[in-house]
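Quick one, T. Sequence first:
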Amino acid sequence: MIVETGHFALALALALSLVQMVMPIWAARSGDPALRQTTSQAALGAFACVLFAFAALTWAHATSDFSVQNVVENSHTQKPLIYKLSGVWGNHEGSMLLWVLILTLFGACVAGARNSVPPRLRANTLGVQGLITFVFVLFIITTSNPFTRAVPAPLEGRDLNPLLQDPGLAIHPPLLYLGYVGFSISFAFAAAALIDGRIDAVWARAVRPWTLSAWCFLTLGIAMGSYWAYYELGWGGWWFWDPVENASLMPWIAGTALLHSTVVMEKRDALKVWTVLLAILTFSLSLVGTFIVRSGVLTSVHSFATDPTRGVFILAILVLFIGGSLALFAWRAPLLRQGGLFAPISREGSLVLNNLFLVAACATVFVGTLYPLLLEMLTGEKITVGPPFFNSTFVPLAIPLLLIVPFGQSLAWKRGDLLAASQRLFFALGVALAVGFATLAMTAGGPVMAPVGVGLGAYLLIGSAMEIVARARGYGARRTRSPAVIARRAFGLPRSAWGTSLAHAGVGVVVIGIAAQGWASEGLASVNPGQTLAVGPYVATLDRVAPRKGPNYEEAGAFLTIRTRAGDEVGQVETGRRFYPSRQMTVTESGLLTIGASQVYASLGEVGKDGSIGLRLYYKPLVLLIWLGAVVMALGGGLSLTDRRMRVGAPAKAKARALPGAAVPAE
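Structure tokens:
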């Protein structure tokens, strides 16, 4: 009964999303503002219905209701409860339901944002969001129904993919979808502004918190996915330029550009057309990622569906939203007047340069990801675009982008002084060079670019700290050298200032972690109990190999002792190979020993008849900084969100009036 009710709730959500889409149009034609309130109520109702449907599917998984086909294909009575719950979104149908749940959640949040979003803009935004919800709920009901019954119901399920039976799966997809789907709000704001013909600082202030929220979640989602692949897949890498990894990276890069562009628009009432275009492109890239994962055009551990019918439907969605929004942009954008002017050497100018580098980097990832797929589709020829292409195209764009970040912070709005900014950053540049040369001297004979990366990371860290110090010291007559005054002023700075510096510092931490992988080392050997394998500054001794039995798997576990080259014991590592009878599938369970921010990584191979095992051992110096830096970046964004200016809308200008079919002239 609960399953049928969940299915009915999903159908009711389809109807409510249609009401949510139509009401703003009706209100605009009739001039009745009361109809706008119906839009908000429909958005809240659609969220409640989808939430109930998701809860019904979760209940079916938790109780092992094998009368539901989705439960049969992705669950098992012996599977631990946590994996029964995470298995709800560990498949195509369930993950699409989670996708729509988050979509309606953001719509409900906008419906409740009465103080920060003007009523007309809120109604139009919810109308566009209603269209997105309607199309995706229709997609679920017609091609991906998670409530399809299994007749007759089997006694046992087929279990979830063993690679997905990991705590990381309980965290990674929800975070990733909160980012992916969160950008739909930015898209809806942009489409609503184009429809209304009005884009100003009020719009920028309204859209910026939603963009920043989505960016924070996507940052954490990508980081969690990277760490999950690092320890679960057994290959020891943190990024492989897999097409599905790239599918999440592209909207993150575009979203970063959008976030910086909204700052310029809010402060200077400039870059209106560019900001709207970025909002459209960011969500469009999220849709492209959805197509890549669910269309069956590639085979990956990350991909879900192989049914071409679903791929055609998603392709139609891409045409509708990407093509439709770009057509709307082409029609309405010429009516939008640009706002304030600024000199090339200014904070606005540095943010524009930042945007150009980000968009170029995103374009390289886009081409490298989709070109092989398009080539195979058109000619049947299969090619592989791997890390060498991305490293040679993406990295040269990333380095100058990172170099200008502290300069952009040091420049004044409207018109800046490049020489003065350089002088303020002289200390950061000097320390970064010293760190780089010192690292090069200590690692003589190692990779040359690794010390450069460490120096660049130090430059970003110090530059971020100096921005806070410079603002606390003041400028002109307010400039002070008193440490007490500087500290007092620093604590009095807006939270958004601290959040920006913290996010940029997080980038520096990530850069140092990535650069340090230039000194990573690997060892591979077939060893028997009592034998050793050396890697980096450590030596691993295989103590024993022992079988174990889990709730739904059998495992051969290897137990290692890690010592320094001098013989001092550091810790124990356990790795193994698990066999899942229900899936007839074997997976590797990596063993990790964390030493500060570094890790010793062990991966077990085949077990020989003589008792020897294939053992792969890695030493990953400072590897944890990659993910810790991403967390710091997200924390910086979250700190900025607590700033009062992010929660309260900008006051509307008295002279601003929306003209039919035209934008408000800039003041």
